[in-house]
Design a protein that fits this description.
137 residues; globular; 4 helices; alpha/beta; two-stranded parallel ribbon; two-stranded parallel sheet
Length: 137
C-alpha cells in the first residue's frame, strides 16, 4: 500500500505556499501540511492494520525543523498512533531509495513525460491531487 500526493503549484489554492494578505509564504508549514494530508488520506483509504506505526523521512527532509513536523503529526486524531517518527539517510536505506523511485514515477506521469517511465507500478499507488485541498479528508 503506497500513497502519494501531487500539487500543481501554479494552480494551488490551499494554505502556506503563496503569500496571502501581506504574509509571506511558509514553505516548512506547506511541506508539513502536505505530509499531514498524505497520511490522513492514506489511512482513510487504507485502514490501519496494527496498533502503531513508524514513519520514516529522508534525513534531508527533516533537517530544517524535525520537531515541528513530529508534534504536528502526533497531535492529529485522524492518524493512527505513531510509535516513532524518525529520519534516515536514503543513501543507506534501500526502502527510501525505492520510495524515491516511486515518487519519480508519479511526478513524471503527472508533470513530466509519462512515456519515460513504466506506469505499471502506478496501479499500486493511491495518488491524491491536493492542488485544491479541502478542509476534510
Amino acid at each position: 500500500m503506497m500513497s502519494a500526493v501531487i500539487v500543481d503549484k501554479e494552480r494551488y489554492t490551499g494554505p502556506y505556499a503563496k503569500p496571502v494578505d501581506g504574509n509571506e509564504a511558509e514553505p516548512i508549514h506547506f511541506r508539513n501540511f502536505l505530509n499531514r494530508q498524505l497520511l490522513e488520506r492514506h489511512f482513510a483509504n487504507h485502514p490501519p492494520i496494527t496498533n502503531g506505526y513508524e514513519i520514516v523521512f529522508d534525513r534531508t527532509y527533516l533537517e530544517d525543523e524535525p520537531s515541528g513536523l513530529k508534534s504536528y503529526l502526533r497531535g492529529n486524531l485522524l492518524l493512527p498512533h505513531l510509535d516513532s517518527i524518525v529520519q534516515c539517510d536514503s543513501r543507506y536505506v534501500p526502502a527510501l531509495q525505492f520510495v524515491d523511485t516511486m515518487v519519480h514515477i508519479v511526478k513524471e506521469t503527472h508533470f513530466g513525460k509519462p512515456e519515460t517511465v513504466d506506469g505499471r507500478l502506478l496501479g499500486a499507488i493511491s495518488v491524491f491531487d491536493l492542488t485544491h485541498p479541502q478542509k476534510t479528508v
